[in-house]
Amino acid sequence: xxxxxxxxxxxxxxxxxxxxxxxxxxxxxxxxxxxxxxxxxxxxxxxxxxxxxxxxxxxxxxxxxxxxxxxxxxxxxxxxxxxxxxxxxxxxxxxxxxxxxxxxxxxxxxxxxxxxxxxxxxxxxxxxxxxxxxxxxxxxxxxxxxxxxxxxxxxxxxxxxxxxxxxxxxxxxxxxxxxxxxxxxxxxxxxxxxxxxxxxxxxxxxxxxxxxxxxxxxxxxxxxxxxxxxxxxxxxxxxxxxxxxxxxxxxxxxxxxxxxxxxxxxxxxxxxxxxxxxxxxxxxxxxxxxxxxxxxxxxxxxxxxxxxxxxxxxxxxxxxxxxxxxxxxxxx
Amino acid sequence: xxxxxxxxxxxxxxxxxxxxxxxxxxxxxxxxxxxxxxxxxxxxxxxxxxxxxxxxxxxxxxxxxxxxxxxxxxxxxxxxxxxxxxxxxxxxxxxxxxxxxxxxxxxxxxxxxxxxxxxxxxxxxxxxxxxxxxxxxxxxxxxxxxxxxxxxxxxxxxxxxxxxxxxxxxxxxxxxxxxxxxxxxxxxxxxxxxxxxxxxxxxxxxxxxxxxxxxxxxxxxxxxxxxxxxxxxxxxxxxxxxxxxxxxxxxxxxxxxxxxxx
Lengths: 332, 262
Description:
The structure holds 2 protein chains of 2 kinds.
Chain A: E1 9-21, H1 26-35, E2 39-52, E3 57-61, H2 68-75, E4 83-88, H3 98-101, E5 104-108, H4 120-130, H5 135-149, H6 164-176, E6 182-186, H7 194-211, E7 214-218, H8 222-228, E8 231-236, E9 239-245, H9 246-253, E10 256-263, E11 277-282, E12 285-291, H10 295-305, E13 308-314, H11 318-331
Parallel strand pairs in A: 3-7, 3-8, 5-6, 6-7
Antiparallel strand pairs in A: 1-2, 1-4, 8-9, 10-12, 10-13, 11-12
Helix pairs in contact in A: 4-6, 5-6
Chain B: H1 2-21, H2 23-50, H3 59-84, H4 87-93, H5 96-100, H6 106-112, H7 120-136, H8 143-169, H9 171-174, H10 180-189, H11 200-209, H12 212-215, H13 217-223, H14 229-255
Helix pairs in contact in B: 2-3, 3-7, 3-8, 3-13, 8-10, 8-13, 8-14
């Protein structure tokens, strides 16, 4: 399949199988495992295809072990695909040519590359040398990124004395030193508190706007995905489950919306049954699920039929929807 | 090439800085190094008092071998051990991913990332013993004999490095390799004595199968001006083959690298 110049990343019918061996519990199992190891292939990723344009921010969703990380690592060239094709900016990632590696970067939330005993600054200059940046270029670049990440004297303090949030920001700085145009982020906000997560998020979105870099990220935190990724790719048990924008995912998953009403007087459930499915009813508060096409009618009827103090319409929380999606996938 | 030199400089200056970060530990390391040094000198003094011949080597020329051994042991402590025993951790913790994604040769990165300055005194002492003992045994140096010495020393080091790296690289499959360090140490220790001090069968094995002779005996012969040219030639080819094989094996191993799961 020829690569359209407007596509930066092309993934075509990509699969990866891992050869694993199971060990039975106990001493006997251990002996058996040692002498007569039975191996079999376990599919981690099966037959996945998609395209990504330059400048996009794409979120990869999936339960633990769904194959997100394997997919990400095949795209940055760490894992050789079993079958299928990956093309990133015209390169075949698994060949790991220098020209390709200078264009990409990988940040892993649970693995660090900074030298533990030294301030981040030392590691940064090592990285700069590896990427062939001059000391001057490195300095300008570090200042620029430190500014965006709100890092100051933390860069001259030993990494082991930094908080997790400061460390993660330093890791991101180290990963972006060479101006990569494709960012692979595997759980970049793992373990961070809400504020630190928000700061990493706003940095990524600003970086994307300023440099036009393409960002691919996986996260367990739905907030990361909703705040950053207009497009999501859902992986379930190694298969592509959904590829599209987040809003229409929510629409297709949940054709109805939540209508929360606060009434002047208390009411009973039978008064509301004709408007929609009652989610919750508590004295003067009612929460209804109303299908989208009936929404305007129902709301205007409610307003005429009752004395209403407050009315709120919202989508059900996305992480609940995703949870539902995966349970649905299980049934299918 | 320039980039590689600058990288080594930064690797080693950060390695030095990390060693200094823990003052007490650095002090202890210095003391340990002093202990090792005294140990080597003690063993050497045993040679002095013995006055026996080892194989067809006089004790002065056998001392040259001790010097070469001390030098290689120092180089091992400074460079090989800190780096190559670390490879298994890179694999187990999955930080090898970061190394593989750098636009620099990964074997280069893994082989020179660290430098332990505690090995330095042994390196200096080793060279000192080599020259002192060589002079004692009545050798006169020439540009030629010094060049041959440096070349044969490099041959020994490259062979030692390649064998060690091969074993370390196999951790890609086994994740936890057995403590290969000890095996290689024993191999190097076998080179403390002239190769001709061993029985014929061992002599054969140490020259052709496990090239211990190339590590210590041949460099010592080189400085004493006794090394035959065809052995030097053979050594260059053998060490090149070892090195090429280690690179080939590493590339092959990486094809099987699955990267530690998240």
